[in-house]
Structures are given as structure tokens and as C-alpha cells.
């Protein structure tokens, strides 16, 4: 079928034609935004789940919902060796410069001046002016070098500036498991101050299944977060994720074709998009039939193998590959790290660094004490397809 009209979009962070199965999270966010506008600040939202399950697109939808209410929004992705300070500083520049104008109120002028000082705290060479003379504005002082002090000041001043326009500030952080434990602790402390004093600011973080644990280890008052486990779709939602985009293009799915894709995908959103895309491309009529679906799944599997899975596999060392292999066949649900050590004829301690590196690379996590599991659904089968 016409590839130009293909509505399926496999790929990290790509907005699906139909975002299904996330109504509860979206409704909770909508309530939080409205409560915040009325002066009550709720706890940070923490979305966690496996690779490809749809955390980034959900976070991005939260951003759009906040923007639709004219909120100031900063969305950043942790990792790549950048500090939270720098990520937030750079992320705030655009939304702030969008609203900076000569007629700005006192609070906005103050926020801009504070932002200028925050920038100076990590970038001695760069300065911002926002095209305004801020010499007479109050604010500044977000450059003490102490993250908690500086972050509190910038978040508070920008949130209060947003409040001047009866909206708030939304701070969205993807891949949050890659923040350092100091940064997570600081975020928790700042969010706590915000909630206590009702600064109009909401935080949402997304990350791998180890994020709740990482937050707990950062001693960051985990009870003060709202956790939401983002899971694969229900059968009904998986069907909707396939049918709704096709329907919008006047294309239908034969029931057995639909069932095949739902089952082969394990109801994981990334796989649904990949298989849907390939099945669409091979189909010829205005209905996708079972043989199209079968071929689509096979072609989709090849694409996943050479992209989604391979990109992660190729980032591991030979020792790490051995460890991952030893985690099969139970790796998707979890296997004792002692058992993995037995299989490799090594001690748990000797394998500690390999295990730690794999966790750091985001390939595995510990669902429970002494248990290790893949963060990537279907990794077991993929490894089985790789020659030793
Ligand atoms: N609720 C959903 N309904 C339909 N498709 C979805 C849904 N959520 C995500 N997808 C699709 O799944 C794919 C992966 O989504 P996304 O990148 O958000 O996952 P992720 O959880 O952030 O993965 P990672 O942990 O690798 O960053 C994308 O192709 C996206 O379009
Ligand atoms: Mg993501």
C-alpha cells in the first residue's frame, strides 16, 4: 500500500498516530495542571518502564498539554555527560526568550535576571540578555555553585513569573535514571519546597524501571513522588493502536491479520508500530490480510534486529555479551545474579563490574534484590538469533 500514507511510526520518541492506553496518566496530569493554576502544587510524576514502551511520547504529550494551557515548559533528556544544571539552563532559554518583552512584569524581569545568573554558573563565556536591560531588575544570585540553592532560585523565580500570567512552569526530564544521585536528591528537595510553598511548578520524570530504586537510593523522599508504571498495552489498546491509524486512512485489517500482529508484538508499542508499518507496505488492497501481516512481522523483525536491538548489542563488550547470554532464557522476566555467575563459572563479586556497566548502559536492571532482567523486551529471543 501507499508508503507515503503509512501511518505507523516506529522509532524512539516518535509521536504515534494514535496514542492509546495512557488515559489515566493524561487525566492525572490534566488535574495537576489545573490544581496548580488554582494554587495547589502536586508531587512530581515519575513514569518508569521498559525500552520502547512509550515513556518519551507520553512525556512529550504532557508537554503539549501544558503548552496548550500556555504554560512555560522545559523538556530535557538526561545523559550524554551533561549536568542537570546545564540541561535545565539551556532548556529554559527558549521558553523564557519567547515571553521576554519590554512590557514584562516585575516577576518576569526578576526571572530573566535570575536566568542570566544561572547561565553564568555553568558557562563563564556565555551571557544572555534577552534583548532587555535587566540592570534595574531584582533577582539574580542563582550562581552560588551550590546546585540546591541555584536550582531553587531559578525554579522559584521562573515559576512565579509564570504565575503572574496565571499559568505555571512544567519541568519534564527524560532518561532521568541517568541523573546523578546528587541531582535526583536536589530535584526532590526543590520539588518539596515547591509543593510546600505552592510555587506554580510541576515536575515529571521518565526513565527505566530502575528509576524508582535510584530515587530511593538517592534518599530523595520517594514517598513524595507519584509513580506510574508504564506498561505494554492491553489487548484492546494494542488493537486500537493498529486499527485507529489505518481507519483514519480508510484502510481495514482482517481480524486474523490484526491478531497476528498483536500477538507477535507482545503488545509492546514499538513492535506494534514496526510490524504495522511493514504489513501496510506489503499489502496491496484496502484491507491488510493475514499473509501481509505474516510477511510484515518477518520484515519488521529484521528491522528491529538491525536497529532497535543491534544498536544496544553493539554497545557492549565481549564480556558483557557473555553476561547477557548467560541471562537467557529467563532474562526478560529476571534471573538470579548468582545463577548467572554459576553459568559463567565465576563469583558474583567477580562479575560485579560487568553487571554494573550493563546497568549503567541501560540494558539491564534489578527488579528485585539479587535478580537481574533485561530492560529491552524481546532481548532473549534476539540474543538467541545472534551467532556466538
Ligand atoms: N501509547 C502508545 N500507543 C501507540 N504507540 C505508541 C504508544 N507509546 C509509544 N508508541 C510508539 O512506540 C515507540 C516507542 O516509543 P517511545 O520512544 O516513547 O518509548 P520509550 O519508552 O521512551 O523507549 P526508550 O526507553 O527506548 O526511550 C514509538 O514508535 C511510538 O510511536
Ligand atoms: Mg524514551
CATH topology of the largest domain: Rossmann fold
Small molecules (ligands, ions, cofactors) in the structure: adenosine-5'-triphosphate, magnesium ion
The percentage of residues in β strands lies in 5-15%
Order of helices and strands: HEHEHHHEHEHEHEHHEHHEHHEEH
Tertiary shape: globular
Distance between the termini: 38 Å
Estimated structural class: alpha/beta
How many helices in DSSP terms? Answer: 15
Secondary structure: elements and pairs:
Blueprint: H1 23-37, E1 45-48, H2 55-68, E2 72-77, H3 84-99, H4 106-122, H5 147-164, E3 169-174, H6 181-197, E4 201-207, H7 211-217, E5 226-229, H8 235-248, E6 252-253, H9 255-265, H10 269-282, E7 287-288, H11 290-313, H12 318-327, E8 335-336, H13 337-343, H14 348-360, E9 364-365, E10 371-374, H15 379-385
Parallel strand pairs: 1-4, 1-5, 2-3, 3-4, 6-7
Antiparallel strand pairs: 8-10, 9-10
Helix pairs in contact: 1-2, 3-4, 4-5, 5-6, 9-10, 9-11, 10-11
Amino acid at each position: 500500500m501507499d508508503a507515503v500514507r503509512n501511518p505507523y511510526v516506529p522509532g524512539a520518541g516518535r509521536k504515534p498516530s494514535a496514542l492509546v492506553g495512557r488515559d489515566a496518566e493524561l487525566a492525572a496530569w490534566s488535574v495537576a495542571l489545573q490544581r496548580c493554576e488554582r494554587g495547589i502544587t502536586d508531587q512530581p510524576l515519575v513514569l518508569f518502564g521498559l525500552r520502547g514502551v512509550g515513556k518519551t511520547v507520553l512525556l512529550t504529550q504532557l508537554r503539549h498539554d501544558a503548552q496548550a494551557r500556555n504554560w512555560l515548559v522545559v523538556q530535557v533528556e538526561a545523559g550524554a555527560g551533561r549536568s542537570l544544571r546545564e540541561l535545565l539552563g539551556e532548556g529554559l532559554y527558549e521558553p523564557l526568550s519567547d515571553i521576554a518583552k519590554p512590557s514584562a512584569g516585575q516577576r518576569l524581569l526578576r526571572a530573566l535576571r535570575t536566568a542570566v545568573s544561572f547561565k553564568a554558573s555553568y558557562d563563564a563565556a556565555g551571557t544572555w540578555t534577552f534583548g532587555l536591560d535587566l540592570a534595574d531588575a531584582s533577582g539574580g544570585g542563582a550562581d552560588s555553585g551550590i546546585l540546591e540553592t541555584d536550582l531553587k532560585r531559578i525554579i522559584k523565580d521562573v515559576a512565579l513569573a509564570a504565575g503572574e500570567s496565571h499559568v505555571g512552569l512544567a519541568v519534564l526530564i527524560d532518561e532521568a535514571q541517568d541523573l546523578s544521585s546528587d541531582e535526583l536528591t536536589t530535584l526532590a528537595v526543590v520539588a518539596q519546597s515547591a509543593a510546600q510553598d505552592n510555587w506554580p511548578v510541576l515536575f515529571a520524570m521518565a526513565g527505566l524501571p530502575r528509576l524508582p530504586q535510584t530515587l530511593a537510593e538517592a534518599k530523595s523522599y520517594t514517598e513524595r513522588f507519584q509513580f506510574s508504571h508504564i506498561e505494554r498495552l492491553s489487548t484492546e489498546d494494542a488493537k486500537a493502536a493498529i486499527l485507529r491509524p489505518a481507519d483514519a486512512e480508510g484502510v481495514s485489517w482482517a481480524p486474523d491479520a490484526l491478531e497476528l500482529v498483536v500477538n507477535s508484538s507482545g503488545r509492546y508499542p514499538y513492535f506494534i508500530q514496526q510490524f504495522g508499518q511493514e504489513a501496510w507496505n506489503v499489502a496491496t488492497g484496502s484491507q491488510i490480510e493475514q499473509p501481509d501481516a505474516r510477511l510484515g512481522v518477518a520484515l519488521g523483525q529484521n528491522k528491529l534486529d538491525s536497529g532497535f536491538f543491534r544498536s544496544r548489542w553493539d554497545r557492549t563488550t565481549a564480556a558483557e555479551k557473555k553476561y547477557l547470554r548467560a541471562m537467557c532464557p529467563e532474562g526478560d522476566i529476571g534471573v538470579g545474579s548468582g545463577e548467572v555467575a554459576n553459568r559463567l563459572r565465576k563469583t558474583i563479586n567477580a562479575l560485579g563490574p560487568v553487571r554494573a556497566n550493563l546497568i549503567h548502559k541501560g540494558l539491564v536492571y534489578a527488579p528485585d534484590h539479587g535478580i537481574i532482567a533485561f530492560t529491552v523486551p524481546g532481548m532473549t529471543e534476539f540474543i538467541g538469533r545472534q551467532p556466538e
